[in-house]
Amino acid sequence: MGAAGRRGHPQRAQHRLAADTSIAEWALLDALLPPPACTTAGGGRPEKHPRRDIVDAIRYVVDNGIKWRALPRDYPPWSTVFKWFAKWAKTGVVVMIRD
Q1: Helix axes 51-64, 78-90, angle to 10 degrees
Q2: How many angstroms separate the CA atoms of 54 and 42, rounded?
Q3: Based on CB atoms within 10 Å of each CB, which residue in 32, 48, 52, 93 is the most buried?
Q4: 3 state SS of 10
Q5: What is the Cα–Cα distance from 80 to 95, expressed in whole angstroms?
């Protein structure tokens, strides 16, 4: 997560929810994710939501066995979270992280 966390709050020192990644977990996971398009030669616009929030939301869905649409509002919109999950699943990132 960048300098600002959810709802504009400074980065959290502690977990807010059980599914949230620890600092150590995030260091490992962040290294496995493809670079943001805005940092590549092809370019792209900056991502609207921090990737750590996206990963935490995916973990929340998996951990609680809920429908995507039931994702709490503390996370980015469910459609955004699902879009990233589908993209990462299609490109093999989810399998790599799982393994």
Answers
A1: 90
A2: 23
A3: 52
A4: strand
A5: 20
Non-local (6+) Cβ contacts of 37 within 8 A are 43, 44, 45
Neighbour tally for 80: CB within 10 Å: 17
57 near 76, Cβ under 8 Å? yes
Q: Is the pTM of this model over 0.90?
A: no
Greatest Cα pair distance, the chain, in angstroms, is 38
> pLDDT of 6-52, one tens digit each?
444 344 334 467 778 999 999 999 999 999 988 889 888 899 999 99
CA–CA separation, 11 and 2 (whole Å): 7
